[in-house]
Amino acid sequence: MAKHISANRVAESKELVLWKKIKKPFEKAKGLAGNKDVVDVFKYCYPNLWKEVCEIHKEMVLWNSSRKKKHLGSVYSFASPELFLKSHLSVKADTSLIRGKSIKEAEACIESVRKQSLSKLRSREQSEAKRERYKQHTQPRYVYQHIKAYYNTRKLNPEDIDTRYLIVHELAKYKCEGTIQFLTKLVRCEKNLPLQHYAWLKLNELGVTGVHKGRRKGKKKLTHTKRFVPILSPQDLLKAIYNSPLEQMKHYDLFLSHSYKDKDKLIELKDSLNAMGLNVYMDWVNDKDELLRDLTCAETAKVITERIKASKAILYVHTN
Fold first, then answer.
1. Which of 66, 67, 88, 64 is nearest to 76 (CA)?
2. pTM of the model
3. Element (H, E) at 280
4. Fewer CB near the last or first residue (10 Å), C or N of the chain?
5. Is residue 234 part of a domain?
6. Whole-angstrom Cα distance, residue 205 to residue 177?
7. Pair 279, 255: CB distance under 8 Å
8. 171-206: buried (b, 16+ CB within 10 Å) or exposed (e) per residue?
């Protein structure tokens, strides 16, 4: 019963946070609506916020479905996007945008608000697309080996947070069912708070935003708060390649050799190869956080050499 109550509180909190975010725009939409339907005006004026309302509703529906499958009991029914907005129609209308203006000027004001919102929406979509291009859309063969190693490490050597971080960091490069399920479980159940938060960040980068962090009460052990040491340089990465058994599990189907100037074409090729189930290596995709251009050094070449050794074949891509 306690878990059921907690789930309801999470849902209520999610709804409250959403309303606080859109309250002022909704009040302005009511002020702009006049004799028109307020919800329709809000949807027209604030397409970026409307999309967010729809996304959160979808997340809550999926969360409910997930809880039912686990026989945990569903949380209270999260209102549909339209009903959610209609439940707040009693708010005071903000007429500051159109006060003293003619009908024609009010219409121009509506278009101006919509233009600003569309700009924000496009910016968000561009940001999401940029983030997506650096993910691999395939499931590597070693996913479940890494997941098994994660739980074995947590059981046998709970103080080894760095090894578990390496696993999360590696698997988060792949947008696939195995990775998403694994990260979702960590966000909900992992006791180490830094790892839980890192898994949550990576899950959001994969476009999965409807997962709620589990909260634990009571005294926390050292292993619950111990922080991991991230890999941020070619030297750190090379050290991990030489010393971590996890690196020995990693294999790539293809190593793409190419000019960095042709990266847009290479992204398209990567996606096509991923669609065929192939795990592809490109240094500025797979190791983009560690092999930054301004950190290039002798270790960078050694890392590339090791990645070639871990690949079944090299595909040289020549473009004009």
1. 64
2. 0.73
3. strand 280-281
4. C
5. no
6. 15
7. no
8. bbbbbbeebbebbbebbeebbbeebbebbbebbebb
Range of the structural domain that residue 281 is part of:
245-316
Distance (Å, rounded) from C-alpha 181 to C-alpha 150? 14
What are the tens digits of pLDDT across the range 44-85? 999 999 999 998 888 788 777 777 777 776 666 677 899 999
Going by C-alpha positions, the residue among 211, 253, 277, 237 that lies closest to residue 62 is 211
**Residues 128, 30: one domain?**
yes
Taking only the tens place, the pLDDT of each residue in 282-310 is: 988 899 889 888 888 999 999 999 999 99
Evaluate if residue 319 carries a pLDDT over 80: no
Give the whole-angstrom CA distance, residue 258 versus residue 1.
57
Q: What is the pLDDT of residue 211?
A: 63
CA–CA gap between residue 138 and residue 146 (Å, rounded): 15
What number is the average pLDDT over the span 115-120? 96
155 and 95 in a common domain:
no
